[in-house]
Amino acid sequence: MNVLEFLHTRQSNPHLQGVAPDEATINSILQAGMRVPDHAGLIPWHFTVVKGDGLTKLGKAFKSAVISDGADEAKIEKAAKMPFRAPLIIVISTKFQQHVKVPQQEQLISAGCAAHAMQMAATSLGLGAMWRTGEMSYHPLVKERLNIALHEEIVGFLYIGEKAKELPLKATKAHDDFVSYF
Description:
Layout (H helix, E strand, L loop, with lengths): L2 H7 L6 E2 L5 H11 L11 E7 L1 H16 L4 H9 L6 E7 L9 H21 L3 E5 L7 H6 L8 E10 L19
Antiparallel strand pairs: 1-5, 2-3, 3-5, 4-5
C-alpha cells in the first residue's frame, strides 16, 4: 500500500489488547511525533509514555479526578478502568514557548500534528490506535498527576495496542461540500 492509499483508508480502532509494543517500536512512534511541522523549531510538546504500572497510576488519577467532581460510583469505576483500554498510552501535552512570531495556537496545532503523526506511525506498524480526549484531558488533577503544568494543554491520550478485531472500512467522506476555491 502506498502512502496515499494508507492515508485514504486509515481509521481509528478503539478495540485494543495485548502487551505494550517493545521499546524500539515505541521509539519509532515517538520519532514520528518529532518530525511534524514546528514553526521556529520550538518543540512545543511533551510525550508521556504510560504502560505497565503506569496504567494503574493513571487509573488512580482519573478516579481521583472524578471523585473530586462528585461523581457517582458508576462513573468512578469507569474512570479507573479507562487506561486499561490499551496496553500503551502516549499522553501528548503542550510545552508552550514564548516566541514573538509563533503564538500558542500555532504551537497547540503542532502538538496535535505530533499526536496525529504518532497515530499514523502506530497504524503503519500494524497496531491499532485511538486518539482520545474527553474530560480527563482538561482536568487539573490529571495534569498535576502527570506533571503537566496547569497552563499547558493535554492534546490527547493516544491509546495503542494490538487490534482486538478488524473493523470494516468506513465509507469515504466526500470533500466537495467542504472545499471552496478563491
